[in-house]
Write a structure and sequence with these properties.
The complex is a heterodimer of chains A (166) and B (454). Chain A is elongated. Chain A is 41% helix and 4% strand. Chain A is mainly alpha-helical. The two termini of chain A are 26 Å apart. Chain A has seven helices and two strands, in the order ββααααααα. Chain A has a two-stranded antiparallel ribbon with strand order 1-2. In chain A, helix 5 (113-129) crosses helix 6. Chain B is α/β, with parallel strands linked by helices. Chain B is 40% helix and 9% strand. Chain B has helices spanning 3-19, 46-52, 55-67, 119-123, 127-135, 145-157, 177-190, 202-205, 223-241, 264-273, 278-291, 327-337, 362-367, 384-389, 404-416, 426-436, 440-448, and strands spanning 94-95, 109-111, 140-142, 166-170, 194-198, 212-214, 219-221, 297-302, 345-350, 394-397. The radius of gyration of chain B is 24 Å and the shape is globular. The chains are: A mainly alpha (166), B alpha/beta (454). At the A-B interface, helix 2 and helix 4 of A face helix 14 of B. Chain B: Its main location: mitochondrion.
Chain lengths: 166, 454
């Protein structure tokens, strides 16, 4: 079992699926996250390296302040790599020179867990504050989106409130 | 049609026969025998099972269930005397020996040799063929006219540079391209070639193995796949590799360079000790065996078209990674295109026309002069890199239908193995042959094994 930011990720699950355990991360965001961390589709959580787990935790703790990753240069068909004894510093320098600036990264705007729940709470609180129909329905604990109340409406009666849990 | 469970029971019956005091000995190379102490678990069913069983046990039960496809039932589950077999094994086949392979043995079924360093066992097999070999009592194949053609090409290639012998087997689905590649592989292995076989090239591009960007090569390395390839290459070719030494010094990251004159086995072991070194070592090993002229080299790739398709990998910005930016496909493409070559040897590939995730791309189709399946005008984009990588590939068309004598041999193999559920007579043979219009896979799977007639 791997614990990342308070969420337990089972070892036997694919990492791409396990990341959806976070509130605010669905399948598309999980796929993008895995691509960012160079985790292939069929990688299980138990195969993640400690470095990848640390990077994941570091990224998810604050996505908006993460360092942007440049676009690394890719070999053309005629490219001949330098010998393996080339110092790492030289390779880093060359890669940095040839790397292109990254475009806008949608992952930097994601909100997970408490931040995402706060967004939902704030939205409902705003609706209540401005006195809208949606706000009133949340306050009454009734369906908001025009559903029938003669029958059913059980979920809304159970869950809808002004400080509704996200 | 419930032929397959019956088949599994039939095979177990043979195992039972071998374990009993009867004089029969039936050895199945691909049958699994329950290991000592191994208990076959049944997956729990229903919610009760899920609640009570801990997650680890459920997972292993699921895994057993998945792996049990086409595996024989354990002998302990077949105590009934009905499963005893006292009939002698009627499938006697000659062994696949390179000296025998001439036009004389065309349309004859020959069994593949079984030894410790069998390339099939070590490199693996394509999925369809693996299933077929699990059902048959011994792995065998029918020698066709196209087999003799391929073998003649190999004999010619053994004296030439591999740049001049880059052949791709083409044909409709189920016509026998993968089987032909296996026959070529076995022939080369028996003739003392160095062989490297990639049975499922789709696994290189379908995002099932680790990838990591490398600044030096500017590609995404696949260290685990490279490590496994090295391991298998060493195991199959050990006696030949022990005679070879490096001709130049080889540099490896974070390590002192390997001096010239080092045995190739030692070089491979460096890659096996540290997975991080595996891609560099694999590159170096293939270059070294490309320089030597003692042993010809065969590089055989099944699902060859997958190397030219878009991969399922995504880079850190979620753009698709091209196949030639992944280390393993790039390596194979370089040998397939002739940019790198072996001093003696050949590169053989077999297309897989039944894979819809990795269909035949237009660049490869045009390089092999195959007819189009849909209109491709000049406005359809062709990737220039793939056009270059596909340049110079030679096509060997596998006939779409088996000849009557070849089909008769196939029929005889399954009949003598007691796998045909219907009564095996001429009428059945001709009916199923006509229904399949000679297509090998349709004849065996849809014709013989899937139908039952009184």
């Amino acid at each position: 079992m791997v614990h990342v930011l308070g969420v337990q990720l089972p070892d036997y699950q694919y990492a791409r699926f396990a990341l959806t355990a976070f509130y605010g991360i669905g399948h598309k965001t999980a796929h993008r996250l895995c691509a960012r961390l160079q985790i292939h589709d069929k990688c299980k959580v138990r195969s993640l390296t400690p470095h990848q787990i640390t990077e994941l935790a570091a990224f998810l703790s604050s996505p908006s302040t993460s360092t942007p990753i440049p676009r690394f240069p890719l070999a053309t068909s005629s490219y001949k790599p330098p010998p393996a004894s080339t110092p790492l510093a030289v390779l880093k320098e060359e890669t940095k020179k040839l790397s292109q600036r990254a475009w806008a990264d949608p992952l930097r705007n994601i909100k997970i867990e408490s931040e995402a729940r706060r967004v939902v709470k704030d939205n409902i609180a705003h609706q209540r504050m401005i006195g809208s129909y949606v706000g009133k329905r949340h306050a009454m604990g009734l369906p908001v989106r025009g559903q029938n109340t003669q029958n059913n409406a059980r979920t809304a009666k159970k869950l809808n409130r002004v400080d509704r849990r996200g | 049609m419930l032929t397959l469970p019956v088949r599994c029971q039939r095979v177990s019956c043979q195992l039972l026969a071998s374990s009993s005091t009867s004089p029969l000995v039936q050895t199945r190379s691909y049958a699994t025998q329950p290991k000592k102490g191994q208990i076959v678990k049944q997956a729990s069913q229903g919610f009760k099972g899920k609640k009570n069983t801990p997650p680890g046990q459920m997972e292993s039960a699921k895994k057993d269930k998945k792996m049990m496809a086409f595996q024989p039932l354990p002998v302990s589950q077949l105590p009934h005397p009905l499963f005893e077999s006292d009939r002698p094994d009627s499938l006697t086949l000659q062994s696949f020996h390179p000296e025998m392979l001439t036009r004389v043995v065309e349309s004859q079924a020959l069994k593949f040799p079984h030894n410790d360093n069998d390339p099939f066992r070590i490199f693996g097999l394509p999925r369809n063929i693996l299933v077929e070999f699990r059902l048959l009592s011994k792995p065998c194949s029918v020698i066709r006219s196209v087999t003799i053609d391929a073998i003649n090409k190999l004999d010619a290639a053994s004296e030439k540079n591999s740049k001049e012998s880059r052949v791709v087997f083409t044909g409709p689905q189920g016509c026998g391209k993968s089987f032909l590649l296996l026959q070529a592989l076995q022939y080369c292995n028996a003739r003392d070639w160095l062989v490297l076989y990639i049975p499922r090239a789709t696994n290189l591009v379908n995002s099932t193995t680790a990838h990591t960007y490398d600044m030096r090569t500017r590609t995404y390395l696949q260290p685990i796949f490279a490590y496994q390839t090295l391991q298998r290459f060493l195991k199959v070719n050990t006696p030949r590799l022990e005679q070879l030494r490096t001709q130049t010094g080889i540099e490896i990251e974070r390590r002192h360079p390997v001096p010239p004159g080092t045995p190739l086995v030692e070089l491979i072991n460096i890659g096996l000790k540290d997975q991080g070194h595996a891609p560099t070592v694999l590159d170096a090993v293939l270059e070294e065996i490309g320089k030597q002229t003692i042993f010809p080299v065969l590089l055989a790739v099944d699902d060859f078209q997958a190397l030219y398709c878009k991969s399922h990998y995504r880079d850190q910005h979620f753009s698709a990674i091209k196949s030639y930016h992944l280390s393993m496909p790039r390596l194979l493409l370089e040998y397939a295109s002739g940019r790198k070559s072996f001093a003696r040897g050949a590169v053989f590939g077999a297309l897989s026309m039944s894979n819809t995730t990795f269909p035949l791309p237009v660049e490869l189709r045009e390089a092999l002069s195959l007819e189009y399946d849909r209109p491709y005008g000049q406005y359809v984009k062709r990737q220039q890199e793939l056009v270059e990588y596909a340049h110079g590939l030679e096509r060997l068309a596998v006939p779409s239908s088996l000849s009557v004598s070849e089909a008769a041999s196939v029929f005889e193999v399954w009949m003598k193995d007691r796998a045909v559920p219907s009564k095996p007579n001429d009428e059945l043979f001709l009916t199923k042959y006509s229904e399949a219009s000679g297509n090998a896979r349709a004849f065996v799977w849809k014709g013989l094994l899937s139908s039952m007639s009184a």
